[in-house]
Amino acid sequence: MRILVALLAALLLVSQWGLWFGHGGWLRVRELQRQLDVERAANAARIARNEALSAEVRSLREGGEAIEERARYELHMMRADETFFQFVQAPPAQRR
Q1: Residues of the chain with pLDDT under 70
Q2: Distance (Å, rounded) from C-alpha 32 to C-alpha 46?
Q3: How big is the CA angle at 60 (ends 55 and 66), to the nearest 5 degrees?
Q4: Are 66 and 59 in contact (CB under 8 A)?
Q5: Alpha-carbon distance values, 5 to 12, 13, 17, 36, 52 (Å)
Q6: What's the pLDDT at 48?
Q7: What pLDDT score was predicted for residue 83?
Q8: Do 27 and 20 contact (CB within 8 A), yes or no?
Q9: Which of 3, 18, 69, 74 could crosslink 22 through cysteines, CB 3.0-4.6 Å?
Q10: What pLDDT is attached to residue 95?
């Protein structure tokens, strides 16, 4: 009877080995699921970035305000009817 129980236990272990550690086993499935979650998160970030860029392109194509804003802040441009004032602080007095 003990031999039969040991034989059945060995058969159970052999049959379960492929399920847990084989090519399509649970451990491999868990690792692939983790990789899939990482890729989905990266794709969501890329989709959000693409949507923001698309909105910016639409704004630049449709309205002049976005073009003017970029020219002002990135290129430091101003209109012909504006006057530019720059205030420079005096250097602190030197100690003797």
Answers
A1: 95-96
A2: 21
A3: 100
A4: yes
A5: 10, 12, 18, 41, 65
A6: 97
A7: 86
A8: yes
A9: 18
A10: 65
What does the alpha-carbon distance between residue 23 and residue 34 come to, in Å, rounded to a whole number?
16
| CA–CA gap between residue 93 and residue 62 (Å, rounded) | 52
* Euclidean distance between CA atoms 56 and 54, whole angstroms: 5
CB 49 within 8 A of CB 56: no
- What are the structural domain ranges in the chain? 22-75
* CA 45 – CA 49 distance, rounded (Å): 6
Burial grade of 82 (CB within 10 A; 0-12, 13-18, 19 or more): exposed
Q: Residue 16 in contact with residue 26, Cβ under 8 Å?
A: no
Query: What does residue 86 show for φ and ψ, rounded to 5 degrees?
Result: -125, 125
Rounded Cα–Cα distance for residues 4 and 6 (Å): 5
